[in-house]
Design a protein that fits this description.
With 411 residues, the protein is an alpha/beta fold. The chain contains 14 helices and 13 strands. Strands 8-7-6-9-12-13 form a 6-stranded mixed β-sheet, with helices on both faces. α11 runs parallel beside α12.
Amino acid sequence: MKRIRYSKYVPNPAGEMSMEDLLAALSDYLLQSGFEDQYGYYDNPNEQTMDQLRQAIEQALLDSDLVDEELREQLEQMQMEGTLDQMIEQLIQRMQQEEFISVDQAHDPAKQSSLGGQTGEAQSARFEVTDKGLDLLGYKSLRDLMGSLGKASFGRHDTRDMATGIEASGASKPYEFGDTLNLDVTATLSQAFQREGLTLPLNLEYSDLHVHQCEYQSSCATVLMLDCSHSMILYGEDRFTPAKKVAMALQHLIRTQYPGDSLSLVLFHDSAEEVPLSQLARVKVGPYYTNTREGLRLAQRVLQRQRKDMKQIVMITDGKPSALTLEDGRIYKNAFGLDPLVVSQTLEEVSKCKRAGILINTFMLASDYGLVQFVQKVSQMCRGKAYFTTPYNLGQYLLMDYMSRKTKTIH
């Protein structure tokens, strides 16, 4: 009789681990803002090496909640035996195969030097998170934030108005010139039958036409102004990485739930620049001051290109305005206190936003007395809101404010 010998099943953590969970565990590293570079050294700030990725994966495996206790003991045993590095290489290969990261040099983990270490080429290889990986990070951030809010669905920007749109949710009404011809066939035929009776051919008249009504959902153009000055990583706290996560969550929310809305990104520091949303996760802080006025000026130009019912600026910052672009192009800087010239020019730009009908909501990651007064002044001038938050609850305030804004503004 033929016998079959069964060997003991040995699980392969590298092949069974969820890449989505691993990417989420690495999110702080992949979205790093420069917090580890607190002393002003900004050489090659966007470079991420394969060695750094290996260290981040090892830390995520051993120190985070990515794995259970039994698997962690197995990983610690692998570390003692010297086989953990091989598993990490397998995970990196899977991340490449599933297109979560891309490597700018051919990465061959089998390519070893005579001393047993990796060659200089492998050590100097750089990697970059792909658009697929960034989209997943945005989804994960949004899901975590919405879960903390206790919401089962994302909702819409509902208003109290009724209009003839595409989605029917109200009673039909007689057609009027200018309505969208979202025809209510049943009501139209019923009206014609009441007038003509059951005769063929049926003559339809203008008064017979009825259209569906739907709840009016306003469209919104938003400019996210993100402070990337050096203060966002000072004082022992990284405020910039949580701000980027919230921005990515907002981007994912708008793309998937509010396709009629638009979102643009403006970074403000010594000056201001518009950055494609696809580059949001790669943005880092620098040795900059805070030129809030220039950010507001650029945000207004961006919003002028949009034809939406609502236009708003969402500003995330932690510092006082400390820089100003002069008429000749020079940048005036003063980091000591609230400079009267800088403040007055910034408030003048806020006044222009008010005249243009642009709402400004400020999410302040600081609570200094002088800053509180300045932000409250901005909110009063534009009839916006000021939220004095922390990096831990910034997302809850921002997303809830965004989703409830239209109901309160459009009547």
